[in-house]
Amino acid sequence: MASSSVQSPLVESDSTLSDSVRNNVNVTVCCQGYSQAVSGLIHYIEQNMTDVVESVNFESLPYNINEMDEFDLRRVDVLLLCHSIKNRRYPITDVTGALYDSFLYRAMKHLGKSKVGVIVHDYFEKDLSPDKVHSRMSRFRQTQPTTFQCASLVLIGGQLSHDPVQLTHEQLEELRRFLCAEMSLTESVRVMSNRLSDCYYCILCDCCERCVYSIFCCKKRRYENLFD
Q: What is the pLDDT of residues 13-66, one digit of tens each?
């Protein structure tokens, strides 16, 4: 007797998007203060990285550390945290008076380390020689390791308030590679079509479970059911 089989409601249809899904990234630039402090960086990204970036948004962070826990990361795709040394020097993490221990850890857990970048800026031009930046970065890595554990991009630079910003060509290329890596992750996603509901939001990603859970219609389904 022929055995009958029950077809899963999640069936890969003829219209499955098996090819790469190319979506440029949406960047959120945030800092404690007004957007003018980073307007040069925003302008540079908007003018020079349109092949990678869909949009750049600015979000102001509260000065109260406890209030940063209320910052809604659900609306963030890629995060660039910019900190001016004019604001209490640069106690980013680990040291006395650190400002972003909890915020960066929460961002890393929610977005993934690869989607978090940190730029410490507003150093004087005389302090931006390669030797001084290298020495300061080494000391930064030793004294504030959590920053580097939570962010895949960490830069030290001068002013970001107007274009041209005081980041070296190499640093700007590093920023581009950081954003390109996120676009490549997006391209690796395969979209499955649910024939019953024409839903294209159920994503099977080779990278991690977080990508599946971040898609809202998939929250209604158990993760393991997507792979039955």
A: 343 433 444 579 999 999 998 999 999 999 999 999 999 999 999 999 998 888
What is the rounded average pLDDT for all residues in the chain? 79
The SS3 assignment for 73 reads: helix
**Rounded Cα gap, residues 124 and 130, in angstroms:** 13
Alpha-carbon separation of residue 32 from 37, 73, 87, 216 (angstroms): 9, 16, 8, 30
Amino acid identity at 109: K
What pLDDT score does 88 carry? Answer: 79
Render 96-150 in DSSP notation, one character per residue: TT-SSHHHHHHHHHHH-GGGEEEEEE---GGG-SHHHHHHHHHHHHHH-HHHHHH
Q: How far apart are CA 213 and CA 204, in angstroms?
A: 10
Q: What fold, for 25-186?
A: Rossmann fold (3.40.50)
> Which sequence spans correspond to the domains of the chain?
25-186, 190-227
What burial class does residue 70 get, using C-beta atoms within 10 Å of its C-beta: 0-12 exposed, 13-18 middle, 19+ buried? exposed
